Amino acid sequence: MINDQLDIGVIQTSLDAVAAWDDDKSGDWQRCVRISAIEERRAKKEIRYFLASLRGLTRKPDIILLPELSVPLRFEQQLKSASEKLESIIIAGLDYRIETGMPTPTVSNEAIVIIPRRLRKQQIAQRTVVRRVGKTYPAPGEKAKLNKITGASVAFHSHPTVWIFESSTLGKFAVAICYDFMDLDRIVMYRNKIQTLFILAYNRDTTSFDHLAEALSRMLFCNVVVCNCGRYGGSLAVSPFREPFQRTIYRHAGQNLPNAQLIQLPLASLIKHQQGTFQRELKSLPPGF
């Protein structure tokens, strides 16, 4: 049975890209595309702290979000254990993955979706399941930085697959990574198929993402949640409510502000409205929906 609301934990870590991925001019390109040891320790400490803060709440999150590139690769198993203990889905951006077997230095950018065997004390599977969502398009600045690494022009391996996840209690949701948020072909594929769109970002242009989230919430008629890094702030959640003051569910503005917040999004009423049963508190469906 579909939940009336979605409880979402949004975690902003304070990862500094300049310190984390530093071209040290050593010529070892693999070291340059991996998070530095100091930033890795700090990232793990922050993630543990914020997960513990969410675990201490009376109302537990259905889904927890962590920004693009925020999780060191060696922290995956701990994240899986946290998902099982919290009985919450965790969607997190991973550090760059080195693509072995390629003729030239190549990396990819992925998010991990951890679905525990139990959600809110209800068993949904025999074991915890892990899925990976790849980024299709690198941001121009990201691509340029990879290409300029000393000793190797590192290529970006695109993952063109578009994932949609379906749950009997949490509805249908999709996950995209940062610059893919601006991919119109992807947006068309989501239309009339999801209730929630999650964006994991390491984005400096927070204003543009604010406007894009507001527009796509109306055009796709779904909840849109942007989980950005605390370095730049700008995490946001919007829903297509009729009243303007209700549409912004959450906004966290300001730089260098790591934070964790539990927010609540509409779900059952949104599904009814999408299916043609008018809900007074929501906006009209977009043309041709």
Task: Present the secondary structure layout.
Elements: E1 5-12, H1 17-20, H2 29-32, H3 37-55, E2 63-71, H4 76-86, E3 89-94, E4 97-98, E5 106-108, E6 110-115, E7 118-119, E8 122-123, E9 129-134, H5 140-147, E10 155-156, E11 164-167, E12 171-177, H6 184-190, E13 196-200, H7 206-219, E14 223-227, E15 235-238, H8 244-247, E16 248-252, E17 259-266, H9 268-274
Parallel strand pairs: 1-2, 2-3, 5-10, 12-13, 13-14
Antiparallel strand pairs: 1-17, 3-6, 4-5, 6-9, 7-8, 11-12, 14-15, 15-16
- Average pLDDT confidence is 94
CATH fold-level label: Nitrilase/N-carbamoyl-D-aminoacid amidohydrolase
- CATH class value: Alpha Beta
- What is the fourth-level CATH superfamily? Carbon-nitrogen hydrolase
Output the strand order for the largest sheet: 9-6-3-2-1-17
Describe the structure.
By secondary structure, this protein is α/β, with parallel strands linked by helices. The radius of gyration is 19 Å and the shape is globular. The strands form 4 sheets. The protein has a 6-stranded mixed β-sheet with strand order 9-6-3-2-1-17. Strands 11-12-13-14-15-16 form a 6-stranded mixed β-sheet. It has one domain (5-274): Carbon-nitrogen hydrolase (Nitrilase/N-carbamoyl-D-aminoacid amidohydrolase), CATH 3.60.110. The chain has helices at 17-20, 29-32, 37-55, 76-86, 140-147, 184-190, 206-219, 244-247, 268-274, and strands at residues 5-12, 63-71, 89-94, 97-98, 106-108, 110-115, 118-119, 122-123, 129-134, 155-156, 164-167, 171-177, 196-200, 223-227, 235-238, 248-252, 259-266.
